[in-house]
Amino acid sequence: MARAASAPIVTELLLKCSDGVTIAAQSWKSPGKPVDKKANTTTTERILCLHGWMDNCRSFHYLAPSIVQALPHVELVALDFPGHGMSGHKSVDGPSLLLSELVYYVAEAAEQLNWISSDAKGDREGSSSQQQQFTIVGHSMGAAVGCVYSAAFPEHVDRLVLVEGGGPLARKGHDIAKHVRQHVKKRMVGNAHPKEPRVYPSLEKAVQTRCFTAKNFPGNQWLSTEASTELVLRGSVPVEGSDSGALKFRHDPRLLWPSLQYFTPEQVDAVFDDVQCPTALILAEDGWPFDEDRAKATVERLKPVVYTTLPGSHHFHADPETADRVAEEVISFLSLLSE
């Protein structure tokens, strides 16, 4: 894979949202100021990376620098969603995770980054400005959020890359009462009797546990020690008063509660129909076992420019043995549409 000579500039960011939640993020930038000689203006290609459920921005620890080094004049930002990584947690007086709410935090982050203006959040549907467009690269849950954001704000997004994610998880409409019941019961118990985070005696033990957890998910999934280490380092804190290296995860435990609401298949199809930008759909051979009917609907409605399945598991973009191939596909897609 061809890479630029200079290493990208990496910066930690804190983005304060209007609801008081602080979003943590990491930024990778190409060195120097990119200049469009014809227009005599500064031009930067903007890419926003959105991670999966219970992950954090270090899910892109390999993919992000690979993209920035391979493409000219890139500013790439990977977010920690609320309750994940180093971001703040949402207030206890509401549900901790609704997919559509995460779209709000993407919009807040984009404005804080000055990628979109306040006017761009209004009802100017169909308005488009090159200075207010960016690419979304989403993994798993982040891919679902990216789909919904791209559908709701098509004027903001010029390209959409779905990595091991085929849009929002669909559930049958007649099951809505069951989902509400499950969430309410868990929420009442969880609020009344909150549990203390588990303490891990060492980083090694926490990493092993994260790897083991991946194997419990559907399909033949696994997570490499290298990828697990990146996620754990970002998503944990030392235990106060411990001098033995003990740590605990800092994620919002409410993320483990059943969701209050799901999209129906009809709603997911409507989201796909409203996505206007070119898309790439990159899946793993041993990744999440997507429902065949939903996978077919995803391809038929999104009509991805790139649709491929690569060796690896659900986190193949972060595992060193498989990440190169994923990076090559993403870079090829972005390069093709930049020409």
TrEMBL record:
InterPro entries: AB_hydrolase_1 (IPR000073), AB_hydrolase_fold (IPR029058), AB_hydrolase_sf (IPR050266). It comes from the Eukaryota. Pfam families: Abhydrolase_1. Coiled coil: none annotated. One of its GO terms (cellular component) is membrane. Gene3D superfamilies: alpha/beta hydrolase. GO terms for molecular function: hydrolase activity. Keywords: Hydrolase. Residues 47-302 form the AB hydrolase-1 domain. Belongs to the AB hydrolase superfamily. This is AB hydrolase-1 domain-containing protein.
